[in-house]
């Protein structure tokens, strides 16, 4: 299983997901362009001390990323009609895709996703932080496939 970020804007979220991936043994794909230099200090504070333990792959664009994905792309989205998290069935080779913090993902990315999943929230609230949403969905996905480290 892998996490992926589509054109991330906030270094701190990338750093947090690098740390999450390192701790749980899950790779992270970064789809460029990014809204900050990869070596930014804020990225370092949030997760780069875990970088040696992380499996991070950078892709120059969406097409390069899609060509490298070996199995399903599972898009995390706030859109109505997406499968609620606890109704989704995950596979051990899924790539969980998160959109950019400012813009989400374009329609062509929605169209390419093999499964769209949303985290249920209280009515009237827009969305969770991208790193928090990624951690919630990854936790459920790993639970389903028996993928928690040491578990």
What does this entry look like structurally?
The chain is α/β, with parallel strands linked by helices and 151 residues long. The protein has a single domain (2-145), classed as SPOUT methyltransferase, trefoil knot domain (Alpha/beta knot, 3-Layer(aba) Sandwich). It is 32% helix and 19% strand. It contains 5 helices and 7 strands; from the N terminus they run βαβαβαβββαβα. The chain has helices at 11-24, 41-46, 62-68, 107-112, 130-145, and strands at residues 2-6, 27-31, 56-59, 73-76, 83-84, 95-98, 115-118. Strands 3-2-1-6-4-7-5 form a 7-stranded parallel β-sheet. Helix 1 runs parallel beside helix 5 (130-145). The longest helix is centred in the last third of the chain and has 16 residues, at 130-145. It starts with a strand and ends in a 6-residue tail after the last helix. The model has no long low-confidence stretch (mean pLDDT 90).
């Amino acid at each position: 299983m892998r996490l992926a970020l589509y054109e991330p804007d906030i270094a701190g979220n990338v750093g947090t997901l690098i740390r999450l991936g390192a701790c749980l043994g899950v790779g992270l794909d970064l789809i460029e362009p990014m809204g900050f230099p990869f070596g930014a200090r804020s990225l370092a504070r949030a997760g780069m001390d875990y970088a040696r333990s992380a499996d991070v792959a950078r892709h120059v664009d969406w097409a390069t990323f899609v060509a490298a994905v070996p199995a399903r792309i599972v898009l995390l989205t706030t859109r109505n009609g997406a499968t609620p998290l606890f109704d989704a069935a995950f596979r051990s080779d899924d790539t969980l895709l998160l959109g950019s913090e400012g813009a989400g993902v374009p329609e062509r990315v929605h169209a390419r996703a093999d499964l769209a999943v949303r985290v249920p929230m209280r009515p009237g609230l827009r969305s969770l932080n991208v790193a928090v949403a990624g951690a919630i969905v990854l936790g459920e996905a790993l639970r389903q496939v028996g993928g928690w480290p040491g578990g």
